[in-house]
Amino acid sequence: MKKYYVTTPIYYVNDIPHIGHSCTTLVADVLARYHRQLGEEVFFLTGTDEHGQKVAEEAEKAGVAPIEFCDKITPRFKKAWEELNISFDYFIRTTDDRHKKIVQELLQKIYDQGDIYKDKYEGLYCVGCEKFLTESDLVNEKCPLHPAEKTIKQSEENWFFKLSKYVPRLIDLIENEKTNYIFPKGKRSEVLAKLKAGVRDTSISRANVEWGIPVPWDKTQTVYVWVDALINYYSATRFLKNKKDFWPADLHILGKEILWFHTVIWQAMLLSVGISLPEKTYIHSFYIIDGQKMSKSLGNVISPGRLVEKFGVDGARYLVTSSFPTENDADIGISRFVEKYNADLANNLGNLVSRLAKLAEKNKVEIEKSKSVFYPEVKKALEDSDTGRALSFIWTEKLNRLNAKLNKEKPWTLSPEKAKPVLKECIEKLLEAVFNIKPFMPETAEKIKKVFEGKIKTTKVLFPKIEN
Ligand SMILES: [Zn+2]
Fold it and tell me: If pLDDT is split at 50, 70 and 90, which confidence band does 123 have?
């Protein structure tokens, strides 16, 4: 059986789940469900990143041990994903001993390989990112992602990974169409340009951060939280039963703020120990909320809970996946979400279903099993991780046309003999579209199928209109 392995980033346990995490996780979920519908064996991994200075500091503030702190707040993410009906197969936590063991084994191998050496690190560190910054990363001398936080000057002895050694190899892989793993195009060019501009070796350990995995050959240091986190994609396939064959991952999906780790450092580490590289890494852009950056201080952060409350689970899933920011940032807003919900779900799909159900019931139409195939355009869009394009195709090319056909042929004015074939054709086409909609809106798809399966019965309104 064909296998498919998709991952989301493991989210930093301190974060509050918002629409940014949600879009990454939802698109991964759509892809996982799509591949399951194709009959493939799927492994869908998500989880939380729990080590690092920031977690330790927050735990101290709360007056508890770091692990207690993590145990308490990890469920936030699990709960958010359950609310959005995310079908993950496993939720990994980097504080899991089985993960820690594999991190240590892998680093020991890189060390034995001669690719790790001790050096002095001097530079700026953003605790918000848990990341060393270079001068070129700074905007007004601050981390652009954490302008409210200070960057700290640090100088310490660290273990360094010979990243520069693998740069020529990475450039070759990315430049070759057959082996390129970075999508979409713009992100691929961005990484290539940075690689060609010159890359220095990278620190992979910290001297003064206790809350981390000990470096196996030097217990005075812990593994840098980012290196520990990246290894989760691989470690889960080692310590879970029957998951070995899922490596290499088919797709890592992530936001652009963590592009460098996922397209350069991770691959170089794997090259060092001769482990196959993940097939594909898809890097999406950000949401802009009504023309502004999403930020806690502006109070415009959209949470998955709020979306589900307002639009229902499938409504939220539809709105997020249809606005998924691919190559460029996407400007969204709640009032535009309301308009889109009313237009696409309440009016278009919802009305179509109720009109057809009423007419079919009246004219005693019977439907045999519907076709279960994905439209080639939807397949192509999903192979490109472009959920927005897939949905836009289904709505403009399929559902709009079905609505237009109904309006033109007016089966409600026809005799039952003449109305029947028109309705039958429309319902069959609708059910074909519903099969394509299922990875995005699984519950809605099931509800619609039930309406038309066997004896047709009208249903309550699928998507009640929402006041703006
Ligand atoms: Zn930062």
Answer: confident
Q: What is the pLDDT of residue 458?
A: 77
User: Taking residues 249-261, what's their average pLDDT?
Assistant: 97
Distance 290 CA to ligand 1 centre (A): 23
Q: Omega before 216 cis (within 30°)?
A: no
Query: How far, in Å, are 165, 201, 274, 319 from residue 171 at the CA level?
Result: 12, 16, 17, 37
At 190, is the secondary structure helix, strand, or coil?
Answer: helix
- Model confidence at 371: pLDDT above 90: no
Q: Are residues 166 and 87 in the same domain?
A: yes
Domain shared by 396 and 255, yes or no: no
What average pLDDT does the segment 168-178 reach?
Answer: 98
Answer yes or no: do 242 and 340 share one domain.
no
In this structure, are 53 and 122 located in the same domain?
yes
Which sequence positions are flagged as catalytic?
Answer: 18, 21, 126, 129, 143, 146, 293, 296
Q: Is 341 among the domain residues?
A: yes
pLDDT per residue over 223-253, tens digit each?
A: 999 999 999 999 999 999 999 999 999 999 9
In a domain, 464, yes or no: no
Q: Is 114 in the same domain as 257? A: yes
The last residue of a domain, from among 259, 284, 309: 284
What is the C-alpha to C-alpha distance for residues 362 and 443, in angstroms, rounded to an integer? 26
Nearest CA among 12, 4, 1 for reference residue 28: 4
**pLDDT average, residue stretch 349-356:** 96
Q: Is 305 exposed, middle or buried (0-12, 13-18, 19+ CB in 10 A)?
A: middle
Kindly state whether residues 384 and 243 are assigned to the same domain. Answer: no
Q: Compute the distance from residue 16 Cα to the ligand 1 centre, in Å.
A: 16
Q: How high is the pLDDT of residue 148?
A: 83
DSSP of 29-43, one letter per residue?
HHHHHHHHHTT-EEE
- Rounded distance from Cα 394 to ligand 1 centre (Å): 39
User: Cα separation of 145 and 147, whole Å?
Assistant: 6
pLDDT at site 68 = 97
Q: Quick one: which of 288, 278, 294, 284 has its CA closest to 257?
A: 284
Domain count, the chain: 2
C-alpha of residue 346 to centroid of ligand 1, in Å: 41
Q: Are residues 183 and 60 in the same domain?
A: yes
Q: pLDDT at position 377, please?
A: 98
Answer yes or no: is 404 within a domain.
yes
